[in-house]
């Protein structure tokens, strides 16, 4: 991991729909302590804020650092965050609408807090400390239950007028395609996310297509985890290979458009599915980019796996907070 210069020890928090992941770093971005706890959004906004504060205090104690030494707290939220007001605008995962998360956590912790959308911060983390080293412009694409993304232009996150920029998962790649969670049809997320892959595999199984997935599913409580997909793909299971290669091709088509539009320098692809199968799926993505992007635009563009894993958002939050202090 690349080391950076920070104005002091920092706290980074990744608030998700189910988990809160917290890190404490030194002034070079090295993680001194990390803690994971449940977010329990069903208990209400105040309870979630309190859980984050408790997690931060616990991580500080483990790191052996006094709170007054901390320069700032960075926070990633699964929502667009208004950069002027620190309000998390809308988060289906947390059931939040217009929550003044920055003010609330500042009140709880007594430290300066800076928040942004989690995937934006994951992209910023990779850009600064992970797979984006040395690049000036970068696109991050994270394939999970949904598909999130972030865009860095000239070393800064592109947020857009309403802090909603970077939603690469909702680029439409199949007009009139499958329904997306955003109520459009044929978004990248609706054809290439883990949710879409699961839907297509279960449909294949339902139609009686021969596949080793039936047997693998029996051995893993009927859950299509990344490990199961990886096993089936590596065994050459035809259904799995077909469905996952199709998803990777769509990802490549969307990536080709992003390269054509932005002239970006590097594309970092992460998320659970790619962590388990990146060595096999990235070549499929690269091939689709090669077929669909302008040769001159794609020349020299690196399409690379993410490096920071599940720490990307918390580390990006630290970087974001440091940038806000500048
Ligand atoms: Zn969508």
Element order: H for helix, E for strand = EEEHEEEHEHEEEHHHHHEHHEH
Largest sheet: 5 strands, mixed
Going across the biggest sheet, name each strand in turn.
3-2-1-4-7
Secondary structure: helix percent = 40-55%
Contiguous runs where pLDDT drops below 50 for at least 5 residues = none
Count of helix runs: 11
Structural class: alpha/beta
Radius of gyration: 20 Å
- Tell me the distance between the termini: 23 Å
Q: Average pLDDT, to the nearest integer? A: 95
Shape summary: globular
Bound chemical compounds: zinc ion
Percent range for β-strand residues = 15-25%
How many β-strand runs?
Answer: 12
Explain what the structure shows:
The protein has 326 residues and is α/β, with parallel strands linked by helices. Helices cover 42% and strands 20% of the residues. It has helices at residues 45-63, 101-109, 118-129, 188-192, 194-206, 213-218, 226-234, 238-262, 272-292, 295-298, 312-325, and strands spanning 10-15, 19-25, 31-38, 72-77, 88-91, 96-99, 113-117, 138-143, 147-153, 156-157, 266-270, 302-305. Strand 1 and strand 2 (19-25) form a beta hairpin. Helix 3 packs across helix 11 (312-325), helix 5 runs antiparallel to helix 8 and helix 8 packs across helix 9 (272-292). It starts with 9 loop residues before the first strand and ends with a helix. 47% of the residues are buried.
């Amino acid at each position: 991991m690349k080391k950076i210069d920070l104005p002091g020890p920092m706290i980074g928090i990744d608030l998700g729909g189910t988990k809160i992941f917290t890190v404490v770093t030194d002034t070079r971005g090295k993680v001194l302590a990390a803690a994971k706890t449940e977010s329990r959004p069903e208990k209400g906004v105040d309870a979630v804020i309190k859980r984050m504060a408790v997690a931060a205090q616990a991580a500080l104690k483990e790191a052996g650092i006094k709170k007054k030494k901390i320069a700032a707290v960075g926070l990633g939220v699964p929502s667009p965050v208004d950069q002027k007001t620190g309000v998390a605008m809308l988060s289906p995962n947390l059931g939040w609408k217009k929550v003044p998360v920055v003010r609330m956590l500042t009140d709880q912790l007594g430290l300066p807090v800076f928040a942004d959308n989690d995937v934006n911060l994951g992209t910023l983390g990779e850009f600064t400390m992970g797979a984006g080293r040395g690049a000036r412009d970068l696109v991050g694409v994270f394939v999970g239950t949904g598909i999130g993304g972030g865009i860095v232009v000239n070393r800064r996150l592109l947020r857009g007028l309403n802090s909603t920029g970077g939603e690469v998962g909702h680029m439409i790649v199949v007009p009139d395609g499958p329904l997306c969670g955003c109520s459009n049809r044929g978004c990248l997320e609706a054809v290439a996310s883990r949710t879409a892959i699961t839907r297509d595999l279960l449909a294949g199984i339902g139609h009686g297509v021969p596949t080793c997935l039936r047997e693998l599913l029996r051995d893993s409580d009927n859950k299509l985890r990344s490990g199961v997909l990886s096993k089936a793909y590596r065994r050459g299971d035809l259904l799995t290979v077909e469905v996952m290669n199709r998803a990777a091709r769509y990802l490549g088509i969307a990536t080709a458009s992003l390269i054509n539009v932005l002239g970006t320098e590097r594309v970092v692809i992460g998320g659970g599915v790619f962590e388990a199968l990146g060595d096999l799926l990235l070549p499929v993505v690269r091939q689709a980019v090669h077929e669909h992007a302008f040769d001159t635009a794609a020349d020299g563009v690196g399409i690379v796996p993410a490096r920071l894993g599940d720490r990307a958002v918390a580390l990006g939050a630290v970087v974001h907070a440091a940038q806000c202090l500048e």
